[in-house]
Amino acid sequence: MRRGRKAFLTRPWIITVLVVAVAGVGFGLYWFQPWKLWQDETVQEALPGAVVTSAPPTGPSGKPSPPPAPRTLASGELISHEHATSGSVRLVELADGSHVVRLENLDTSNGPDLRVLLTDAPVQEGRAGWHVFDDGEYVSLGKLKGNKGSQNYVLPDDVDPAGYTSVSIWCDRFDVSFGAAELGRV
User: Fold this and answer.
1) Hey, how many other C-beta atoms are within 10 angstroms of the C-beta on 47?
2) How far apart, in Å, are the Cα atoms of 142 and each of 60, 65, 120, 135?
3) Which residue among 42, 85, 112, 154 has its CA within the 20 to 30 Å range from the CA of 57?
4) Alpha carbon distance 148, 159 (integer Å)
5) The whole model's pTM is what?
6) How would DSSP label each residue in 120-132?
7) pLDDT at residue 182 in the model
């Protein structure tokens, strides 16, 4: 019996099947990265404020006037798509005229190749909204810094935020939205 098992395991087609199976499992682990579902990364960033590079300007009373505060242009609440997602999103204009997308109290699953997309797609609930955010105009603001917390994503200078109506937490590897928010103008 032992001799038969050893002869069976040394056949070329059995070795080929075993090598392909091991390679398939390795590729599957790399592609899906299932361990990320149990790994949370929390990021807590403050909203960028005004940068003072010289003496503060003075008002009519001679007292220094406060620097202009960041101004919220649009906001919305995240809804769940492929994964349970909650939190809020704000599109903020900073005192220097630049813009950031701010995720606040974000709570979603971790996953492979997650990005923050600013898009012109409408936010739809359920499966209908899972795959629409890369169909029209969109700007990738970079990799998701953490799947929990509050964080900022700077818009490139050449992006006009007025042309975009939603934000998605987007899994680029599987082309699916984990969650999204419609941006309502303030």
Assistant:
1) 15
2) 43, 35, 17, 18
3) 154
4) 26
5) 0.75
6) SPPP-SGGGGSS-
7) 98
- Residue 148 · residue 178 · CB < 8 Å: no
pLDDT of residue 47: 94
Tell me phi and psi for residue 133, to 5 degrees: -75, -15
* Distance spanning both ends of the chain, measured CA to CA: 78
- Longest C-alpha distance within the chain, in Å? 100
Name the pairing type of β-strands 71-77 and 184-185.
antiparallel
19: helix, strand or coil: helix
Distances (CA, A) of 137 to 32, 133, 151, 152, 167: 27, 8, 23, 21, 12
Name residue, tokens 């990320």.
36
Owner of token pair 């390795």: 26
Q: Which of 98, 48, 97, 102 is nearest to 75 (CA)?
A: 102
Would you state the structure tokens that stand for residue 48, as one six-digit string? Answer: 């960028």
- At residue 160, the 3 state secondary structure works out as coil
